[in-house]
């Protein structure tokens, strides 16, 4: 969706929300009449308001940014899941997600399509297009009804796109204490889509593999995961820029060689994350922490985390959430180029702008409430206040780059449903 929406779009959004609020709220799975076949779905009707004149808000770097005013695309989606059970050992799952994105295609819409074979109660293997299990909410990332908030914490979930991979996953389940410990290993290849000024871009991760541990009972869920991927981006324009810096180091600007390394093609990205959730006595607590290591010359390590606390009061659950995304280390300052060579001064300026563009330092406080209108429909409202430090908006886009701290607010209202 383009930045902002017209008044008519806002009216349509309110009309749809109002229509849902007048329904009897008895959404049920579609009856296929075929034994073993089930069709379910979910969706979100969302409306946001961004009060910034310069920051283009988005939930993920895959999205196009939304500027000042109202927007109905950033929070809205529609999903459809089809399951077929062949027998007690073998089943098939496929999921389609329709969401606002720069490039619409069947491949982008198809989020999962995989076979699962259960050897016994302990071992299982999945083959096909599988959910990318790097987040605690990976399996229901787009299902608004399954989460407490209007949207996932941007500082944690917004930095990495790509919700699935084509490959295999082997899992083992073990009874441990009063819970179940699940260990898994997986490998495959995936696409990493992102938006650049309204233009759809894509990077390949091949190979892409990892391992994880997950323990859960009726109260706790604890999770630890490691993954890494080799980046394939042969069209990366930064490769030519690195070559120019290396050449400059040989002819009058020796420091330029140490700056080269902006290109991500044929480099490794490593990711470690841990998470926990607690659900007891009407208290809901969830937190995740991650560290990303990239093989680049500047800003090669990033950390992100969030903490959410909510409490149920009948059908209403107020909550707050705090999150942080930051580069580990100070912002890189590119050494000056020889003043008498104009072309080197331009290289230095571009290098500094590129360094500023991949620097991250943002914090968000969110306060909201969820009302479970029925067993299949929820209504949520949330206010987010975000502090972005100097050049720290790696996830968000800007109309004009700001060299000082800036603060903006986003208000969101969603209706989430399942059927």
Give a structural overview.
With 419 residues, this protein is mainly beta. The chain has a single domain, classed as Porin (Beta Barrel), CATH 2.40.160.10. Helices cover 13% and strands 49% of the residues. The protein is built from six helices and 19 strands. It has helices at residues 7-21, 106-109, 154-157, 238-250, 256-259, 342-357; strands at residues 37-50, 55-56, 69-71, 77-85, 90-99, 110-118, 123-131, 164-176, 179-196, 199-216, 220-232, 268-280, 283-294, 301-311, 316-327, 361-372, 377-388, 397-398, 406-418. The chain has a 16-stranded antiparallel beta barrel with strand order 1-4-5-6-7-8-9-10-11-12-13-14-15-16-17-19. β6 (110-118) and β7 form a beta hairpin. The model is unreliable at 1-26 (pLDDT under 50).
